[in-house]
Amino acid sequence: MKRFCMIALLCLLAMPTFAQVDVPDLPFESVPFLKITPDRNLGEVLAVAMNSKGHLVVLNHPGTSATGGPVYGNATTNIFEYDEKGNFVREIAHGVYGLAYAHSVRFDKYDNLWIVDKAAMSVIKLNPEGIVMMNLGRRDEGPDEPRYRHANPPPTPVDAMFNGSTDVTWDNDDNIYIGDGYFNSRIAKFDEHGNWIKQWGGPGDGGAHANENPGKFRNPHNLGIDRDGNLYVADRGNRRIQVFDTNGNFKKFIFLNATYDKTRHPVLGDMPVNRPDETAPWTICITNGSTQYLYATDAEPGKIYKLSLPDGKILGKFGISGHEMGQFNWAHGLACPAEDVIYVADMNNWRVQKLVTKGRK
Q1: CATH code for the domain in which residue 56 is found
Q2: In CA terms, which of 59, 123, 284, 290 is 20 to 30 Å from 7?
Q3: Structure confidence at residue 127 (pLDDT)
Q4: pTM of the model
Q5: Pair type for strands 331-338 and 28-31
Q6: What is the rounded CA–CA span in Å between residue 122 and residue 136?
Q7: Secondary structure of the chain: what % helix, strand, coil (to 5)?
Q8: Model pLDDT for residues 273-317, shown as the tens digit of each residue
Q9: Omega prior to 155 cis, within 30 of 0
């Protein structure tokens, strides 16, 4: 009977409590920030992160001529640092072995920079001076056939190794959580010294309404932990955010189910036959003010969502997919140093946008 009650409770938690909801549009503006020079144009920008000094790190994918070869032969990643006024400061981690096709950058509370590399299967910690302090995972050797392949079935996950790693976050005790990722579709947990603790998740479909199989993923694409120890996972392929405690116990789903124009043609891709009510969350960013908020994005309709924590209620939205300023073409990463200031890795527009909301909600 106790087991039945627990299963019933999980099913209740997994069910969405509403369909699409009307959400107010928040006024905002995109303001110039990075000072780009002709010799340092950006390519695909996959992530941004801001340290305690207000310096912004940009994860940039340049042309192959800048790095010498395709991803398996060399690398396609630059890590650039800009000061609080948008001036270029330096390139970080140039020539580091674990960089191939980096997917995410994050600063921890000590201003260490962590780089998560999707192709090299590595998560690299650098101190504020830019020196490598730790590597988790292992890059395939040059002569080997890389694991970064769509395999069916995918390779069996191995403790402390990754396959298509996506993102990293930390709890209040400095334990490390890694989204692993495109192929293993799990969460990996390590202690602060990089010792393996546990994993949870695995590949699983969210169903027609994205509310089935809690704890299963189709690419845990972005992670974040609030001050209360709630772990938020952007389960992109299943069109939902999953919330866990730091031991991997499922707590609830959050859906990006604000109303949108389903007749509008996507910026990239064909016109879908049917569009679901909930859209696919790509990013997660949690503010650090006295009241924490969660920001998230989707690719289509290309909006940024502001949510309250820990309930996950959508408070407002802004932006839309497109090529103009204030529009986004696959917003792939966020930095949110304040409730009303957001930096967007605008991936397919090859740029970073600084957004300032004009009215808090």
Answers
A1: 2.120.10.30
A2: 284
A3: 98
A4: 0.91
A5: unpaired
A6: 6
A7: 5, 40, 55
A8: 999 999 999 999 999 999 999 999 999 999 999 999 999 999 999
A9: no
